[in-house]
Design a protein that fits this description.
- This protein has 142 residues and is of the alpha+beta class.
- The protein is built from 4 helices and 5 strands.
- The protein has a 3-stranded antiparallel beta sheet with strand order 1-2-3, with helices on one face.
Length: 142
């Protein structure tokens, strides 16, 4: 799955590939919450632009990961086997996306950004005491 961006919106696409060919088999338009009239984050200027573009009312905000999962489900409903799902960090960083792939019994390879960390479920953040080297940590203000 990949995402391409434009100033106002982006698309999510699903591609199938084999040793002999590859092709995009599904595309979805992603609209940010600011473009969705029913959203608490709706931006009046963007709603005006949406209306001017004659965008259908039934197209609203759906998270990119959900668009990707919907396309996978649709493709599999056609009887097409999806032996491996590959996705960029926009999807791979979302634990919910990886868990949804597992729930569907899909093998996957996803990019994870370098800022993402994994910890055991019982881990608790700990701040080391100040060692007197370097700048002291800022104290929380009340």
């Amino acid at each position: 799955m990949t995402a391409t961006s434009a100033p106002a919106s982006s698309t999510v696409s699903l591609h199938l590939a084999s040793d002999h060919a590859s092709a995009a088999v599904a595309w979805r338009l992603f609209l940010p919450e600011t473009w969705a009239p029913g959203s608490a984050k709706a931006d009046p200027d963007k709603i005006v632009r949406r209306t001017a573009c004659q965008m259908p009312d039934d197209i609203g905000h759906v998270e990119k990961r959900q668009l990707g999962l919907d396309m996978l489900d649709e493709t599999r409903s056609w009887g097409i086997d999806v032996p491996l799902a590959i996705a960029d960090a926009g999807y791979g960083d979302a634990a919910a996306f990886r868990l949804d792939l597992q729930d569907r019994g899909l093998n996957y390879g996803v990019v994870i950004s370098t800022t993402l960390s994994a910890q055991p479920g019982e881990a608790v953040p700990v701040t080391k005491p100040y060692s007197r080297n370097g700048r002291p940590p800022e104290r929380e203000r009340s």
